# Entry
Amino acid sequence: MEKVILTGDRPTGKLHLGHFVGSLKRRVDLQNSGEFDRIFIMIADAQALTDNADNPEKIRQNIIEVALDYLSVGLDPEKSTIFIQSQVPQLCELAFYYMNLVTVQRLQRNPTVKSEIQMRGFSDSEDDETQNKKGIPVGFFTYPISQASDITAFKATVVPVGIDQAPMIEQTREIVHKFNAVYGDTLVMPTMQLPENSVCCRLPGTDGKAKMSKSLGNCIYLSDTTKEIKKKVNSMFTDPGHLQIDDPGKVEGNVVFTYLDAFCTDEHFAKYLPEYPNLDAMKEHYRRGGLGDGTCKKFLFNILEDILQPIRERRAYYEQNIPLVYEILEKGSEKAREVAASTLDDVRKAMKINYFDDKALIEEHTRKFKK
Ligand code: TRP
# Structure
């Protein structure tokens, strides 16, 4: 069987280092591994609209930002099909049929949907007016079903995502199972692939708070300049008890070390901090006392610059060639449409709603009504 990847992001903002370690870097590695027959990377604008009904222009403006981020981290349109969700209408059609295979109760139990309802301040009771809260948009409520269409339309076998997406993949698997049980073996069962490194699942913001998030203003963006990186690294949360260089320091909860865990390699030590063979030795010195935050931050800055510089250069190239980026998206969307249309042919056949191609049906009815 073909090995196919599908994954994507909602275009609600520029991508940051959290996205890079959590998903982008792995996508590029998977792309370059040559292990996959096809790779589809989707900009999920239609899904983004499910909870941004008030601000469609934000989504429209961020499609290009996400596309630039993709291309600048090294996703290669020759190897990976990058496309825009809304340009593949077959996805809506599939979702419409899948809706009959999922109950309202099952959607209500989806943990990600549940927590997003809380986060967005949607009312989950029936009398939303009295609570003065907005009700839940139907499109938002059903987006797990639409995500099942995204995955199955491309016959994806592997879906690389973060842990927050696990309930969506589970839901997709249930839909595939149900569809195949009702209509015969048609859809491909996908599996989820989580990031290996636990730091990479949840890179904290520069302030040490939970996750990097635009609203908290604690992000390092892939498009940040050298000056911005320097400023952000210098303002990073460390160990508030580590006042003097000689004081013993904590590395747990110390953002500089969390980032070093996520990004540094032994080669970085050889290049920038040869007094230590590796991160364990450096941590040991910090714990003991005698290693200043300034040195650690300088080291982290150098590492981030090493990673971000080539990304910045590719971004600069594509920023000066925006029509080319749109052309890449258009070609990708065209290819995605072809693949989705072919899956839809299979689905219609399996559901026996391909009436006009169904000679047997026409014959059967000819006989039935013939006098
Ligand atoms: N839900 C994903 C996110 O919020 C985006 C997405 C839409 C997606 N459809 C998908 C991811 C299909 C993987 C597979 O980032």
